[in-house]
Amino acid sequence: MPHAIRFHHAGGPEVLQWDEVAVPPPAAGEAQVRHHAVGLNYIDTYHRTGLYPVPLPSGIGLEGAGVVEAVGEGVADVAVGDRVAYAGGPLGAYSQLRNIPADRLVRLPAALSFEQGAAMMLQGLTAQYLLRRTYRVQPGDTILIHAAAGGVGLIVCQWAKALGATVIGTVGSDEKAALARAHGCDHPIVYTREKFAGRVREITGGEGVPVVYDSIGADTFMDSLGCLRPFGTLVLFGAASGPVPPFDIGLLAQKGSLFLTRPTLFTHTAKRADLLAMAAELFDVATAGKVRIEVNQRYALKDAAQAHRDLEARRTTGSTLLLP
Which ranges carry the Enoyl reductase (ER) domain (predicted)? Predict the structure, then answer.
């Protein structure tokens, strides 16, 4: 029987179990996918810890790439033998074999490997909506991205640079600063040594930036607001340091009629037409070489608990894969 990582109660990485699972034939509207690679993302830890509660017991994981082995009744979006990738849908990507709604799958171009597909979908589609939909970056813009050496961060740095932007990024070490710089970050700021809000003002001649992309949350939120110029936008798309506590929205007025948004990938890709358009743009910049998808860590799927420990300890950079 195939195996999958499952958890029966919320908690630390130790709750992740390597279980045998029964995978029935796909139901109507579903496709059965045999994974070649599975993506690791910070949101997986939110599900595991209960920050984002899910019914238990549960599978885990939102991103993978593999081959379609069977399809259910009425499926027209993919066919048996297709190379596919996905981000989103029901939890359960940490598995050797799974069924998933077929309309969540996109065909993977021949120029991209399974590893690239599994490493790029969630993080790359996130970068797409951040840069092209939430705040549409224009040539000449100066932007701030937190966690610039992370999976989303490295893609955002490269893509924003290709769009003609100047990129400021926060990182936790000199090694991560060098990595971010190598991927298009013009001004890496080591936040353990410098106050990033002050440095952003210095870099922009006191003006501030039109947009801050913040996946850190509680630790950076107030200073992120302080980096924005009037009418700037704070895009809060994660909470690696914990959720932002309640605050007086009058601050948005005091700091210059600011905009604040909390988008999710799953809203942006809810309609299949949007998913396909976003994926096509992502695949275009990847195959053109404007964005390099690099896998910096690989773990056996059964060792997912250790991957979670390393991710939460900030010992990872770029994309991380779990290999079935």
Answer: 11-322
pLDDT tens for residues 191-227? 999 999 999 999 999 999 999 999 999 999 999 999 9
In the chain, the amino acid numbered 321 is L
How big is the chain, counted in residues?
324
Q: Identify the H or E element spanning 231.
A: strand 228-236
Flag residues of the chain having pLDDT under 50.
Answer: none
> Is residue 117 in a domain?
no
pLDDT at 240: 85
Distance CA(135)–CA(131), nearest Å, equals 6
**Domain stop point among 264, 279, 308:** 264
Beta bridge partners of 5: 18
- The CA-atom distances, in angstroms, between 38 and each of 5, 52, 301, 318, 324 are 11, 20, 8, 15, 8
Phi, psi of 179 (to 5 degrees): -65, -45
CB 261 within 8 A of CB 134: yes
What does the pLDDT read at residue 262?
97
pTM above 0.90, yes or no: yes
Number of structural domains, the chain? Answer: 2
pLDDT value of position 318: 80
Same domain flag for 134 and 176? yes
Instruction: Tell me whether residue 184 is in a domain.
Output: yes
